[in-house]
Structures are given as structure tokens and as C-alpha cells.
Amino acid sequence: MGAVGVGPSRPVGARAWTELLRLPALFTVPGDALAGAAAAAAHPNPRTLLAICSSLCLYEAGMALNDWADRGEDAAERPHRPLPSGRIRPTAALAAACAFTGAGLSLAACAGRPALAVATPLAATVWAYDLALKRTPAGPLAMAAARGLDLLLGAAATTGGATGTGDTGVTAGPARLADGVRRALPSAALLSAHTLAVTTVSRRETQGGSPLAPLAALATTGVLTRLLTRPPTSRDTTAPRPGHPDRPNRRVRLDLPDRNPARPRSWLWPVAAPRTALAAAYAATAARPYFHAALNPSPPLTQRAVSGGIRAMIPLQAALSARSGATATALLTAALAPIARRFARKVSIT
User: Where are the alpha helices (DSSP H) in the chain?
Assistant: First the structure.
């Protein structure tokens, strides 16, 4: 794509495509599928990786399509963006959106029919948001739905494929798939709530305006932080183990309230600590810029609030994985945060 030009003597560099596709924001995507797999009580497998790659492609399709649809508005409000500045042709951006969408759906199909069944409405939601819903009251709801579907894509891909040699801990079958998706719904709802708050704030990022949106986002962050720090209230029992239909594959949540009052509760600490720390990291990343934007809803502070809300998705995803008992997955997701922060210093995330 870097070889495409906007004129005979003006080659498009990688920098322009990096800005168009908002590459630092890509680091907020893998955690969706990983959190979905963790919520479904399944270990990540090759289909999880396919789901992540599908999500990345669909996300980039949305970025390219967003700038194509907003090229007229950006010409007045953000003329430095790649399309209004002439560094990338609108037709090239639209072609990239189509190519990324096709690649995303193809990768989802490789992960299995259940993954494709989730990726298809996800892609439709992305296109509907950018082309029709963005400036309507349904815009934030559509974006929230897209993030929720992205998490469910990870759950469906991880639990919905056929069991093969070396596939660890995943049982094939409609019951296993339905159970996994059902388990992932609460996590999808939490991620969607955060996305709804961020998107609502972003609607005024170039003009500034009322402090109500950042205040609402700040309140949402507080509620989500509280929910993330609360331990689950019931144990998870998954489908039977492969090859052992009479022996349930029980994934015990060690952070449940102890049923034996006489038993020391210090055993809960190793599991509860990562969940609490990641929830605190989420609150710290999102709350401060929201608070500043509420005090002064100017365009620079509003844009900073949107950037903070986007970056907060990584600790949120990690906290969701930790809350599901997948500590290793949570730490892996959290490791993406400093990388995203480093790249965001060079390229705008919004």
C-alpha cells in the first residue's frame, strides 16, 4: 500500500497509511478475542489466533472506511489527515476497507462456521456505523455492539471448531459452543458499556462542548471498576473432556467466596490480586482524562479523554480475562499497554 501514489511525483509513504489505519489502536484489538476465550472457560488455540487476525482486519477496515466517509468533514476540521491532505486517494482508502473486510471474513471462515457467523454481523455493524449511523443517536450503540461482537468472536472461534489432535481443553459440539458464548456475554456487556461511553465522548472531540459526556463516562468507569473487582459468584462447569464423556471438565474459579468459614482466606490472594491490580490500572487510565475533560470540555482535552478511553481498553480486557480465571492470558494482554503507549506518542490513536 505504501507504493500507491496521489500523483505522478507524490508517492504515499508508510507514515500516511500508519495515520490512516491508526496503528497504535491495533494493540487494543487482540484482548477482545483473548477475553472472549477466557470468559468461555476455554484455553486459547489456533482458532483463537485466527479470530484475533480477523478482528485486526475488520478493525482496520473500519479505520480506512471511517476516513473515507469523513473526508469532507476532515477537510474542514482536520486537514492534516491523510485523505484531505492529499497523501492518500479516497479510492485507495475505500479499496483498503474492502480488502480488509474480505480478509477478516476469510480468516473467520478458517476459524469455523461459528466464528464466521459472528464476524459477518460484526463486519456489517462496522460498515453501517461508518456509512450511516455515526452521526445518529444509534452511533455509539453500534460501536458498542461491534466491540461486544468482537469479544464474542473470540469465544465462538475458540469453542466452536472441530476437535483435532493437539487441541487442548476444547470439546466440539453445539452444546459446548452455546455454553461458551453464553459465558462470554457478561464480559461482552462490560466491554460494550465502556465502548459506549468512549464513543459518546468522541462525538464532540473536534468541537468540545458539554461536560455531561465525560462525566457519564467517568461514572461508567467507576461502575465497571467495581464490577471487575467483584469475584464471580458461581463455579464453572464446562462440557465433558474429550474422550471422557463421564468426567466433567471442571474449571474451578479459585477466587470464589470460601464456603468454609473456618478455612483461611489467604489462598484467594494470588488469584484476586491480578484482577484487582488490572481493574485499578483500567480506572487510572480512563478516569483522569475523563475528569479533566469534564472540568474543561475543550477539543484538546476531549481528544485526550477519547485517547485515554481507547487505551484503557487494554487493561479492561486484561481485567476481564483475570476475572474469568485466566491470569496468564490477562498478563499477556496487559503487556500490550506499554507498547500501545509508546506508539501513540508518534501516531495519533484517534
Answer: 14-21, 30-39, 46-69, 71-77, 90-110, 113-128, 139-160, 174-202, 212-229, 269-295, 299-311, 313-323, 327-334, 336-344
